[in-house]
TrEMBL record:
Keyword presence, Protein biosynthesis: no
Keyword Repeat in annotation: no
Name of the featured protein: HTH lysR-type domain-containing protein
Protein keywords: DNA-binding, Transcription, Transcription regulation
PROSITE patterns listed in its UniProt record: HTH_LYSR (PS50931)
Recorded GO MF terms: DNA-binding transcription factor activity; sequence-specific DNA binding
Family of this protein: Belongs to the LysR transcriptional regulatory family.
Annotated HTH lysR-type domain residues: 5-62
Coiled coil residues, start to end: none
Length: 293
């Protein structure tokens, strides 16, 4: 029989390694600081190596500690994934899809039609999050996220690229001046996502002075920026993912000027296992096909 290190001690070590603090690990585990310290010390004695460098207010992994922390983190992730899928019961045809919120609103939901669901014949558990995940519950099958989001237990593949460009409603454009005139952007409100990044990049590429624009509207989500543009509140930086259906219907117009490459891609994450469940394979294949259309 394989000899494993004490599991309570290993759990305490994993939490301390993740937080870089015995006190934070103790808070997470609901035990005392002294208990975490004792567990880690006993584990070091059992393994015969120092796992941490102790400092007054924090701890730092040694080289051996970093190696062991990666091993433990992967093992715990595999255990969590296995337990989650057993509890849910993959044989019942359920797939859990974790999706970045903006992508769910502007790209996934328009494609997840009744016809598509009937063809998939799956129970879809869709969970949305505003930012790339740092960790996942054990029952998640697939992830769509902005950037590769390296997560233990998952492999990442590029999924969707995007290019950015300014968009506006036809009604706003009709108010003038002409979109190719120097004063067009100064005459309207600029809609920003989170900050000035995209408009600063666009203005530099187009030779427009951002300082000439007095009116600005800020949101922290892409789909809110696009909704504001649809309602004629100003000009937004869009892309073919978030604006495709609105451009095709004529509710938005792509303005003349440079097209900017995106900072990052969307990625599809799948469990790093030899065999995916049937529902996960079906959903993965459907997502890949949808990304090509």
């Amino acid at each position: 029989m394989r000899k494993l290190p004490n599991l309570n001690a290993t759990r305490a070590f994993e939490a301390a390694a993740r937080h870089g603090s015995f006190a934070a690990a103790a808070d997470e585990l609901g035990v005392s600081h002294a208990a975490v310290s004792r567990h880690v010390r006993n584990l070091e004695m059992e393994l015969g190596v120092e796992l941490f460098e102790r400092h007054a207010r924090h701890v730092v992994l040694t080289g051996e500690g970093s190696l062991f922390a990666r091993t433990v983190a992967r093992s715990f992730a595999d255990l969590a994934l296995g337990v989650g899928r057993l509890k849910r019961g993959t044989a019942k045809g359920t797939v859990v899809l974790d999706v970045e919120t903006d992508l769910a609103v502007v790209w996934l939901m328009p494609r997840l039609t009744a016809q598509a669901l009937d063809a998939l014949r799956l129970n879809v558990d869709l969970r949305c999050r505003p930012d790339p995940p740092r960790s996942l519950p054990g029952d998640v099958d697939l992830v769509l996220t902005w950037g590769p989001a390296a997560l233990i237990g998952f492999r990442s593949e590029p999924f969707l690229d995007l290019n950015a460009f300014p968009v506006a409603s036809p009604a706003l454009i009709a108010k003038g001046p002409d979109p190719v005139s120097p004063g067009f952007y100064a005459a309207h409100r600029l809609i920003h996502e989170r900050g000035l990044y995209w408009w600063r990049r666009y203005c530099e590429a187009a030779g427009v002075m951002l300082d000439d624009v007095d009116n600005h509207l800020f949101f922290n989500r892409t789909h809110l920026c696009i909704d504001a543009a649809l309602r004629g509140l100003g000009i937004a930086i869009g892309d073919h993912l978030s604006c495709g259906q609105h451009l095709r219907s004529g509710r938005l117009v792509q303005l003349p000027g440079p097209v900017l490459p995106g900072r990052e891609q969307y990625h599809l994450l799948t469990p790093d296992t030899a065999h995916l469940s049937r529902p996960a394979r079906q959903m993965r294949d459907w997502l890949r096909k949808a990304a090509k259309n």
